[in-house]
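dude i think i finally got it to work??
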Amino acid sequence: MCRSCGGGAPVDAHFCPQCTKILTLGRQGDYFSFLSVPRKLNLDQAELERKFRALSRQFHPDYFYNAPVAERMASLERSSYLNDAYRTLRDATARVGYLLELEGFAATPVNGAANGKVEVPASLLEEVFALNEELDEVRSLRTGGASREQLQAKLDRARLPIEQKRREHEDELKALSGQWDALVDRRAGDEQRRPVLAALRQRMLERNYINNLLAGIERELAN
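look at this
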């Protein structure tokens, strides 16, 4: 409800349809609806930026410098929310994560042990086993006084299969994103959408694990 005139307004309206005053953020929908883009994973980046810039101009606090306090606060709230929305939706990985949250499939580890250690995804067992062997050998070489060049070469070889797995996961994420968008286009029901969301979630969990492995290799090199 508009605080200026008391009139009703749609959840995702930015300005009151009756008095045209900027609305407090209140019951906003989500980042997709806020920017008036479909809840898809392949977005037109140019169109996304165009809508972001258009709304940025409308919400800019400079336009509300002499407005009542409520309107000034509303412009600040909407500007901040807009920045968060744009920052999330322009990044492909963040966009997938946000969609999963909206759909109730948050990509956070759920199979961690009591000590906080996350189990190795089944699809990565072979690579993780091989990497651990390589890292043990690197540590032995370091203890034995091996040169940085030797350690670098060893770690580069250890990185190759993990990088290959990362590229495979990126391809799988792109394919699943296309499947999701096709389901959105034909307004598919939950029965068809849920398996794709579950697969996206699993790929994201595995992707996060792969990134942790690569970060571990970098730490070994730094040591």
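The helical segments are 31-34, 45-59, 69-89, 92-102, 125-143, 148-185, 190-222.
im so relieved honestly
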